[in-house]
Structure formats: structure tokens, C-alpha cells
């Protein structure tokens, strides 16, 4: 659906991710979406610093994201779950207030691609993303399909230093500019 161009003359630069599953029912052992993200991240040549699971609770979500954002070794935080419309879905409410810069384009592209796989049901997601300090944060829906869509259609390429015409790896050294 989207045009991708990988410039093999550029070196691949791995970055470090953390993956947070937001769920009242999952554990680290039963979190299949977080496990899938870890598998895809590592399969692309990146590192996963840590995976965790927290309940659908604003303070718990914000606390874990904040801890990872403050960790100097983590470049990207991915959350999965809590982006729907049920009363317990509070991931955007927990994370968005911490954004220094919103990434509205992520939600647009995610929904555009997701509509090709699940049709109008894509509207039931409040996927969001932004920058907290120098850490990229993406809040994905909790389904394996949504995590696969986000990774395969968008994130895999934006975190590939060989992706042209531009990618997040090129921007990372400039995130502290004022």
C-alpha cells in the first residue's frame, strides 16, 4: 500500500525498544501481542530492553512509560492495549499528557493501513504516538493483528536507517536541539 525504498548503501543502525502490554487479564506469559512485537523487533535487527505488563490503570501505565523514557538506553516505547472505547481503556489518557510533541501522522497512517485489513472496524482504535524527551512512544491496540499492521506497515521502516527518503534514525541525533 505504501511505497518503501530501502537504500542498501546505508548501514543498518539498531535501536532499543521497550514493550508494555496494558491488560487486566494478561500476564507476561500470556501476552501474545507483546511477544509478537518483541519477535518482530528483534527479527528486524533491533534490541528489546524489557517487556512488562501493567493493569488498565492510568498511574500504572504512566509510571512504567515514564520509567522507560528516563532510562538512557531506551529509544522507543511501544504499548499495546487500552486504546479502545471501553471504560477500562485509558492508555491514551495516561500517555498523551506526557508528550512533548504529538505525532498525528502515525494515527492517520495506522488507520489508513488498518482499514485495508479490518475495514471500518479500524475506527474503534485510538492509536496514538508522540515524543517524550528524546524517546519515541507509540500506543498500539492490543490485538496481534493491529500490532503486526503497525510494525509491518509503518514502524519497521521508520526505524530502519536505510529507509528513504527519511526515517526516525536520522532524526534521533537532533532531538535535543533547541
UniProtKB/TrEMBL annotation:
One GO BP: Mo-molybdopterin cofactor biosynthetic process
Pathway: Cofactor biosynthesis; molybdopterin biosynthesis
GO cellular component terms given for this protein: cytosol
Keyword list, A-Z: Molybdenum cofactor biosynthesis
PROSITE patterns (UniProt xref): MOCF_BIOSYNTHESIS_1
MoaB/Mog domain boundaries: 18-162
Record family assignment: Belongs to the MoaB/Mog family.
Role of this protein: May be involved in the biosynthesis of molybdopterin.
Protein name per its UniProtKB record: Molybdenum cofactor biosynthesis protein B
Organism: Pelagibacterium luteolum
Amino acid at each position: 500500500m505504501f511505497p518503501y525504498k530501502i537504500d542498501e548503501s546505508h548501514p543498518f543502525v539498531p535501536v532499543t525498544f521497550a514493550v508494555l502490554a496494558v491488560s487486566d487479564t494478561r500476564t507476561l506469559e500470556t501476552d501474545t501481542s507483546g511477544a509478537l512485537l518483541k519477535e518482530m523487533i528483534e527479527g528486524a535487527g533491533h534490541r528489546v530492553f524489557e517487556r512488562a505488563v501493567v493493569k488498565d490503570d492510568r498511574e500504572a501505565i504512566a509510571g512504567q512509560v515514564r520509567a522507560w523514557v528516563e532510562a538512557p538506553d531506551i529509544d522507543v516505547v511501544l504499548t499495546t492495549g487500552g486504546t479502545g472505547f471501553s471504560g477500562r481503556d485509558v492508555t491514551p489518557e495516561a500517555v498523551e499528557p506526557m508528550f512533548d510533541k504529538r505525532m498525528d501522522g502515525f494515527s492517520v497512517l495506522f488507520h489508513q493501513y488498518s482499514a485495508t485489513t479490518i475495514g471500518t472496524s479500524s475506527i474503534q482504535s485510538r492509536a496514538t504516538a508522540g515524543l517524550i524527551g528524546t524517546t519515541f512512544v507509540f500506543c498500539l491496540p492490543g490485538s496481534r493483528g493491529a500490532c503486526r499492521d503497525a510494525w509491518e506497515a509503518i514502524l519497521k521502516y521508520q526505524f530502519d536507517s536505510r529507509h528513504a527518503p527519511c526515517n526516525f534514525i536520522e532524526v534521533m541525533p537532533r532531538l535535543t536541539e533547541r
